[in-house]
Design goal:
Elements lengths: L6 E4 L5 E5 L2 H17 L2 H12 L6 H8 L2
Antiparallel strand pairs: 1-2
């Protein structure tokens, strides 16, 4: 994403007070913040790493049928 997509909001004195960013970039930032927060806990870090390694699971169709949704 280019810097031109980011808008800086200034006050009357011309001092930057806020930014406007595209929603896609904002979601990336929030995702990274959430991951960093979770990784602060050693327990959560181990759970996330274990989940990342997990290969087993159910196809979406099987879950939908099982939950009857």
């Amino acid at each position: 994403m280019e810097n031109a997509d980011i808008q800086i909001v200034s006050n009357e004195a011309g001092e930057p007070t806020a930014v406007i960013v595209p929603i896609g970039l904002w979601r990336e930032i929030e995702s990274e913040r959430e991951t960093a927060y979770l990784l602060k806990s050693e327990t959560m870090k181990q759970r996330l790493l274990a989940a990342k390694q997990r290969q087993a699971g159910l196809p979406l169709e099987a879950v939908v049928e099982k939950l009857r949704i």
